Structures
1.
Amino acid sequence: MQKEEIKRPIIEVGVIGWIKNNLFKGYLNSILTILILVAAWKTIIPLIKWAFIDSYWFTSGAVCQGGSGACWSVIPANLRFVIFGFYPSESHWRPGLAMVILLGLVFYSQNRNHWKRRLLYFWIVGLVASGVLMRGGIFGLQDVESSKWSGLPLTLLLSFFGMVAAYPLGVLLALGRRSKMPGIRSLCIVYIELIRGVPLISLLFMSSVMFPLFLPEGLTFDKILRAQAAIILFTGAYIAEVVRGGLQAIDRGQYEAAESLGLNYYQKMRLIILPQALKIVIPPSVGILISAFKDTSLVVIIALYDLLNTGKSALSNPEWLGFSSELYIFIALIYFMFCYLMSNYSRRLEVELEYSTDT
Amino acid sequence: MTEKEIKSTLDKSSDIPIIQISEMHKWFGDFHVLIDINLEVERGERIVVCGPSGSGKSTMIRCINRLEEHQRGSIVVDGIELTNDLKNVERVRAEVGMVFQHFNLFPHLTILENLTLGPIWVRKTPKKEAEELARHYLETVHIPEQAEKYPGQVSGGQQQRVAIARSLCMKPQIMLFDEPTSALDPEMIKEVLDVMIELAEAGMTMIVVTHEMGFAKTVAHRVVFMDFGEIVEENEPFQFFDNPQHERTKLFLSQIL
């Protein structure tokens, strides 16, 4: 006797099944789903209308003032100022090229197969080239003093050197904090706690206003250099604590095995402990670096014109009054793009470094 | 091995024992963990240290390669006294290999890299030579085919054998074993003990903390019994197991045999 195949009821499977189980399971979920759909209808539809249907893309400010849609025209109209700031407009190709070189090197360095000796030379050449391009003064390039460096190049400069210097500083501080020598340990603890106890803004303020007061007459430091130092010192303290957590997570047996082979402190840390510890703390470390990237916008407090500040300045033009959202959304997208790329890379790095951790 | 064969592997050519521990005391804070330890180990001698948990046996052998520091008395290894002098400590550690209960292989390196690390960085051996050495010792422990794998990819018994090979690559004078088979499944205990017996037959000076009394009977020159931080009794294996002198020894033996 053949058994009749009994199929599941149609409303339990497929798309309909999914909708029923996930959106309408029970009274509470059903009510919530309906409320959310209504809220979405009320907000998303008007948003789409504002952003895409009624919007203006390449008009002047006056035309935008007459309408009700988004004025995306503010972006193309101010683009060069937002990106390059006060850098002389005929030389915009220079910071542009410098950024391309820097970002190109970063992309190239992503691939761990490229990590050979020549990578170091590429970087040295690339950094020197970028520096020459920005500063000028030789090779017939017009001299552009650092106070004119602004916009996206400044943001990238402060972030990049901030991250690259803060990370080793943080590692050294973390190792120092775990040192058996009380002097070094206390020094590191005091540094970390002091820095973590104050906001970055106050450090920037101190570096810019107070620090010059202590310098002898006539000796001045470049303002960007001071801001850079503040960012490095600040971020380094946070990296230190995260790395310290990683060091603590490493099984004591690893330290002992390394020691019993006869490795000295430096070899033990470099070959055995740090590779494992740093890999464990990739998630929080990247989080700190992403924050550092965004925190560069705080340099507005010391009158440096990073990407956000140039945007703000562009909006002081009465022609574009009332269209700040559009410009800030654009700037936010730029920040998002960089942060997302960093985040993405960290996830890929974690997968790449995966090894099964048996005792 | 017969008693005669065991004795014959002792190298009496140098009169000075390779390890001399005299009047050694250690405290963990206020807790007196090692009390008046006196032990001499000849070159080529094999000692099994046994005793109940917390008796200080692991702590004692860890003092020999300065993984633990003693507060009183002296420990001299191959003529070098263990003090706070870091240079001496590193010299001793290069001559004393250690095998841990939980293997402690480096998970981020391949098995071959685990083995070549010591020779390359401590003995300054060139890479090619170090790799040949590593492959030779992988043969010795019978797992040459696992060279390119990561520690996490091989079994516990194989990991412990890799750990033994890793120590051997440093060509140590002495090998310390801290409960090498305690973390292994019964099937794997034999493969590790066999490797240790082969090592013994080749004449290595060994100090083994273990509960594997069969191993003691097979290759040990002496069995040392510790309890509450003291060496209670030490004797050759047959005397030790058949004719224990102290009450505590008798009690311990009755519990484990």
2.
Amino acid sequence: MLLCLFALPLLALLFRVPPASLLQRLGQPVVLEAVRLSLLTTAAATCLVVVLGLPVAYLVAMRSFPGKRMLEALIDLPMVLPPTVAGVGLLLAFGRAGLAGRVLAAGGISLPFTTAAVVLAQAFVAAPFFITTAAAGFREVEPRYLDAAATLRAGPGFALRHVLLPMSLPSLLAGAAMSWARALGEFGATITFAGNLPGRTQTMPLAVYIALQTDLDASVTLSVLLVLVSFSVLVLLRWAPGRLASFRARAPRPAS
Amino acid sequence: MSFEVAPAETLVLVGESGAGKTTVLRLLAGLDEPDAGSIRLWGEPYFEKNAGVSVPAWRRDIAYLSQDYALFPHLSAGDNVAFGLRANGVRARDARARAVGALERVGLADVTRHRPGQLSGGQQQRVALARALVLEPSVLLLDEPLSALDLRSRGELRAELRTVLHGPARASVYVTHNPVEAIALGTRVAAIEAGHITQIGTPDELLRRPRTPYVAAFMGVNLLRGRLIRAADGRARLETAAGSVAVADTGEEGDLLVALDPRDITLHLDRPVGSAQNVLRGPILELRPEPPFGERVRVAVQTEPPLVAEVTRYAAESLRLQEGTPVWAAFKATGLRPYR
């Protein structure tokens, strides 16, 4: 039963568009614009999440401090929060009258309804996926390896770069892929905080929703694309870590 | 607990599981912090509770070989050995050359590019040793380095460790469960029981004059504790909680200890008539072949006091010794020199 509930909408989407015409429809300006913008913003959002998320993941996984459980709950919050609520929050914080918005406005910067706002909205909802996976990866690195690094006179920075990060690399990549996929599907926070401006803030999920009323074929084409991409990411995540691990364990370094 | 280790000396720590041997090494290495006390190297404080000094592990001139080697699985053997050099600013090319040299010295020049997962246990242990030694540490800490190896590689590595440990200007602390390693590698041996050092001395001292039942059992000798009574005829007897034995009279009195080598005890089916002053009777409790090959047999006898004798397997078989067989145990008094 449940499988039908999963499969039927997907099949309906796939049968609506013959594969041959799919490529042709991809050429439509509305579709192209949305794809371009989605690729750009999700790439930026993923970079942002990785750069800002790594220290947080490290802190949560490797250190103990008062209020750690609160911080962990806070990190998970965007996963369960309705994205529209996140959008309203972002608007109140970074809008013209918002807390941070006033500071930015003084510098002549206005975030809402810009491409940067799309990136921020995506990063907000996608961050927990990276931080949680990365922290789990850090925890999986056995302390004895970090002990060994320390007794080999490696400072914390060297140990981080040459032991902790490489040994948790599969988890970091998986976390980045998960948060990228989440950012790609972001709708609620984006439309609330960044609006729906074609070419500037209209990403693929927004275009799907808008085109539903005007151009059903474009909407379906984008939907099929999103389904394929998301499914590919999930398949890759299940297949790749084992492959990666066994490759790294087996292959001797090439001569250099 | 307090001890010092001099350069070119190897202190072997022995003790039962959970006695605190590994903890001592981790405290010295700086991986854990003691609640109190101090740790110094050549007078330089590494830890000083009262002065608030605590040098982090990576700033200590101490190498630590953990029981499980902890080779980095994502690095080749060569890169594992070069790791410490790279961390200390040695250029990649120089570090690699020195790593290859260090691997050559432990006989592993041909596995430089292999990952730890491709190496045997003995090879991994050698890589870990090369990785620690390439930094030329003043102090080398080893936690049961041979326990995970098969018998043959254990013997080979023990001989290699001997040359490494007795190198100049290096103080080593070596944790083991194995009396053979303690005697072969230790300049001194410290017994740790429940977090305290109960005896420290040369292997010979521990062998001849064990102070606790654990040390005696570890060294494989009988230890009798009792009160020395001098008889009217000038002969001395040690009164233990269970029975008494005749001992040599060294002029000492009071509560004393006596060590008795199991090989100095002879076993007889009939009461022996001879020069030995001590002749005790009791049933055999247990027969245990001595490792590694069992050419000798340890025989626990329920005499008063209870004793362990060691005889050849041939003797045990020709006398048909079995559990429960009543035997006579004989040994001379002159060999038993009481001590405090």
